[in-house]
Design goal:
Layout lengths: L2 H20 L4 H10 L4 H22 L1 H4 L3 H24 L2 H34 L5 H11 L5 H10 L5 E2 L5 E2 L1
Antiparallel strand pairs: 1-2
Length: 176
Amino acid sequence: MTATEALLLVLAGLAAGGVNAVAGGGSLVSFPALLAIGLPPLAANVTNSVALWPGYVGSSWGYRELLRPQRSRLGVLAPAAVLGAVLGCLLLLVTSEEAFARVVPWLVIVGALLLAVQGRVTERAVACQGRGVTSAHRCCTSAWSLRRPTAPTSVVVSASCCSSCWVCSWPRTCSG
């Protein structure tokens, strides 16, 4: 590793930690940097995960007072997070380096798009709750009626608002 590559990784690591502490998505900075210095995608993914977890712990500790009222959600979200992590690890173990390398650009693009629309997703969810909409299907239908989809991100917004919807037909409302 050259001094320039080491400097790139240090700067990317610092930037990723800062981004994660504020908004999340730091892997969109650090992972491409690991690829840029020539690490294979699978090794870069593992390295990225190991490198950034102390930042997650630090951020959680720093935001602990804000997180305290959310403690009740832990019991609901933790099993899904653990299951997703275990399944993701198992999937990585059985996926070839070549297959992972083909999928990585799409994973990064989807991650970036989801990060870009997270504000809209939150606004939709809050708007649905504010209107007293209790059914995810009705919420999704009302989200579609609020804004006709003009871009693929609209699908993500509505599908996120409508978590129990199984099929979203472009450009119509969800049908569950």
